Amino acid sequence: MKTFYVLAILLLPVLSVSCRQPMAESTDVSADDYEVYSVFLNGVLNSLYRPPYATVVLYDSTSIHAHGLAPETTWDNYAAEGECCIYDKDTSRCRQARDNAWKPIYEELKQVTDQKHKKLAPNFTTHIPVTILSREKIQQLYKRYDDETVNIYTFHVSNIAYNTTKDKALFVSSFFCQGNCGRGELIMLKRINHHWVLIDTFQMWIS
C-alpha cells in the first residue's frame, strides 16, 4: 500500500483522466479523435488495471513509430489477420474487417503517421484512470519503479486516419509493460448509430 501512495504523490503534478474531464484547449486533436482513442483504451484496460499494483500511462503526444506500415505493405497483409477472425471466430466483425473500403484508409494511415505529432490533452473518457506523461516523466517513472513493485503499462497512439465520411477509423497503438514486454497493433473502429465501436485489432509486432 505504501508503494501506491508514493506513486500517487509522484503523479500529482501531471494530467490524469478518469470519466469525463472538462475540455482542455487542443487545436490539433478533434473530439472524434478523443472518442476513438477512448473506445480503444476502455476495450483493453479492464484486463490490465489492478490497483494499487498497476498504473496506466499514455504518452502526451501522438509520438509513435508505426512498425509494419512500410510503403510496400498493403491492406491485404492484415485484412484476414484480425483477432476477431482468428481467435474470436466472430464472423460478422470479420466480414466488416475484410471490406475493401478499408484499403484507402490504410493507405491514408501510412501518410498521417508521419505527419506532425499532436499534443494530447486530458479529454479522454475512460473507465479506468489514465495518466498522461511526457517521455521524460515516463523514463523517471520507470527508474523509480524498476523493481516491479508497481506494473507500469504504457501506451503510445498514432495519428488517426479516417474515410471521407468519417465513419471508419484506423490508427496504430504500441503497448509496453515496463520494458518486459510489448505489442504493436493496428486498431480498427467504425461509427455505428453515432457511436464509435471497436471492430478489430491486428497484431503488427510483439516482444
Architecture overview:
The protein has helices at 2-10, 31-45, 83-86, 91-97, 102-112, 135-144; strands at residues 15-19, 54-59, 126-133, 151-157, 161-162, 168-177, 182-192, 195-206. It has 207 residues and is of the alpha+beta class. It has one domain. Strands 1, 2, 3, 4, 5, 6, 7 and 8 form an eight-stranded mixed β-sheet that branches. The longest helix is centred in the first third of the chain and has 15 residues, at 31-45. The chain is globular, with a radius of gyration of 17 Å. Mean pLDDT is 79; it is low at 1-26.
Please report the total strand number as a whole number. Answer: 8
Shape: globular
Strand content: 25-35%
Helix fraction?
25-40%
Radius of gyration: 17 Å
N-to-C CA distance: 30 Å
Q: Flag low-confidence runs.
A: 1-26
Structural class, from secondary structure content? alpha+beta
Q: How many H/I helical runs?
A: 6
Written as H for each helix and E for each strand, in order along the chain, the element string is HEHEHHHEHEEEEE
